[in-house]
Amino acid sequence: MVLNLIYEIEENWKDKKKVEDLVVLLSKYFQWFDLFNSENRFLKKMAPFEFQIEKNMSLRKLLDLAVPLERYLQVSVKDDQIFKINEGDNPKAKRTTYPYCFILDHLRSSFNVGSLFRTAECLGVEHIFLVGYTPTPEDKGVKKTAMGSEKWVSWSHSHHFSEVHEGLKKKGYKLIALETTKNATDLTNFKTPDSPLALTVGNERFGLSEEVLSSMDEVVSIPMMGIKNSLNVANSLSMASFEVLRQWKK
């Protein structure tokens, strides 16, 4: 109830009168922590925060109160709850794109796809090709994680990789795979070609098939410094995309 009240205050933050009334109620709840929950060590610990609750408190200070409650209640907070969709965005700005695209071949996670839409929008990717059972922005999970970026990045879906491959080759694209193979080029040694390119990633567990890898112009890997042999697919593509963009802008 207290956590939901904090969320309600956040949702109505621009309504100062309503926020003031809700903050008064929130302060009373924290007083009750001390009065009626003396045997609960966590609630006893939270009770002193009542003295920090003020009508003119900042939004950051308010949400700082939510964190220990979320952890105590084991509430998992997602991106769309932390970052309000489109808050602070400038929809009137003209989006700059570069001659490269993403190919997501048989990705399983809608979270990864949504995250990559955000990466694509921020780093000027011109198009995303979704292949096989890779979820599209019509999927609720993708839309939730993409947080509006799916509206500004063009995308298409194909059932087979060969359809995407043939189309891009005709347009002069270089196809670059991100994969942990023995003969892969280290990302730190990768030279971005002058021609348009397509960065390609495969299934989170199995990677790209041998058939797809054999059709690539180059295979690139990200050097690992630890015990694990690979990064999350969304993190990997974000890192490689930034390196491509860095080299082009340089």
Keywords:
alpha/beta, 250 residues, single chain
Secondary structure blueprint with pairings:
Blueprint: H1 2-11, H2 16-36, H3 41-46, H4 59-72, H5 79-82, E1 98-105, H6 110-122, E2 125-131, H7 140-146, E3 154-158, H8 161-170, E4 174-178, E5 185-186, E6 197-201, H9 210-214, E7 218-221, H10 233-249
Helix pairs in contact: 1-2, 1-4, 6-7, 6-10
Short description:
This protein is of the alpha/beta class and about 250 residues long.
Task: Describe what this molecule looks like in 3D.
With 250 residues, the protein is an alpha/beta fold. Helix 6 (110-122) packs parallel to helix 10 (233-249). The protein is built from ten helices and seven strands. The protein has a seven-stranded parallel sheet, with helices on both faces. The longest helix has 21 residues, at 16-36. Helix 7 (140-146) links the parallel strand 2 (125-131) and strand 3 (154-158). Helices cover 43% and strands 14% of the residues.
